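Issue 218. Parser rejects a valid record. Input:
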Amino acid sequence: MRTLADRIETYLKQRLSESPRGVVEIRRQELALLFACVPSQINYVLSTRFTVDQGYWVESRRGGGGYLRIVRLPVDLHRLVEALRDRPLSQQAAEGVVRRLEEEGLLSRRE
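Output the parser choked on:
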């Protein structure tokens, strides 16, 4: 059974894949209503599954007219390796990088 975080992640990635520019803008409150959750759950998904290491840029504005803008960053393998080479990487961050490389077709599931 998929968790709420998994469903939110899948929904946002689907919206990104449908966007010709690789950008999604959505109100946090609309997303929370859609998934019947509190906005902090949305924040959790964004902070753990849509990081720069994983290839996403997230802009957020809070308040009544608040929104989220998620941008899928292009993969530059050389820059990615350079950025990751000289710093410790958590298991979660490493798994995110591998997942992104798989999504981009640079690694197969088996690899």
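Fixed in the parser; the record now loads. The chain has a mean pLDDT of 84.
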